[in-house]
Amino acid sequence: MRLWAKANSQELPNIESILILGLTDGVLLIRYFSFSKRQVEGDHWYPTVNEAKRDAEQVYGVQPTAWLAIRDEKDELYQLSVMPIAGYTFDAESAEWVPSESTDYSPKSRH
């Protein structure tokens, strides 16, 4: 599942668009400087689509009727949606997701 919308935030004008990507467990809200060039600003995980949409509306100015469904394709976003995120890193040189060298996937303390 992929939902895309144009962002409209005066506080964050560099964010061009938002993508909600369905994962096996929850969704990612991915923020783009440029969607067509795959220039990602960052992402956040949410347990539900509705929570991601609510945040997109409040923070990035995406209206509830602005979402467009994008066909699922077997590209890098598809790979991200069907594999566990922990244990993989994106290798920009080869443009592929590769197993991480680290085997410690536990959350790190922020204290």
Automatic annotation (TrEMBL):
Protein name: Uncharacterized protein
